[in-house]
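Minimal example, chain plus D-glutamic acid.
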Amino acid sequence: MNNRPIGVFDSGIGGMTVVRALMERLPLENIIYFGDTARVPYGIKSVETINQYAAQITSFLVKRNVKLLIVACNTMAAVALPTIKKLSKVPVLEVIEASARQAVAESRSKAIGVIGTPATINSNAYARAIHLLEKEAIIYSQACPLFVPVVEEGWFDHEATRLIAREYLKTVIAEKVDTLVLGCTHYPLLKPLLQEIMGPQIRLIDSAEAMAGIAAALLKKEGLGNTSRQKPDYLFCVTDVPHRFQMIGERFLGRALSNIELVRL
Ligand code: DGL
């Protein structure tokens, strides 16, 4: 059981921010990543479609014998978690609760901003998760659909990204939030730029780091950590254009990427 891989899945490439955090935090664990590069982005699709895709990916990873499933994609976590949990025989962790917990722990004023894809923001999943932990919290949400393509383009420090970010963040800045949840896989790559626009005193909550911490705690609690001293195996399954996944994935991961498999669902 302990040698079985952790299954991490995303709508495409963005979940590699979670993989990176997992590799750093849990360097002995085998990981199988699924990125639906043929159908990304999910964040602008309907709840029905996102549920259908999430069910297919869950079944795929369950068949690959994973010991834990991590929903790296905020959009799927926001609108398809019951579907995923129903199909999974192993524990399921997702990014929203992880980030909500960290945001509540770090915010002093309890005025918390949340940014994400339109599907995530419309679902109100972050507001619900934060309110369950802190009734007094006031949440200001903003969908930022243009952030996904600019990140995929590699425009982490680009004037166009700065302009877009200033426009999107106007409201959360005006509401004087002290904490901003980066509620999308792609946003951690914009951290320095978002920090510059929000100001140095604002806490940015990175769902990737929060997720890795929770995964480590669960493996420890359940006694599921990999005890083998062998170099871990990493496998990346994608549904289209593996070479693009490799190119952008290396940027997300900050290291060379191999072992990419093209799969059909
Ligand atoms: N992975 C998605 C998320 O975290 C962003 C990309 C998409 O829209 O599919 O919300």
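The chain has a mean pLDDT of 95. Residues 10-12, 14, 40-43, 73-75, 116-117, 120, 148, 184-186 surround D-glutamic acid (CB under 6 Å).
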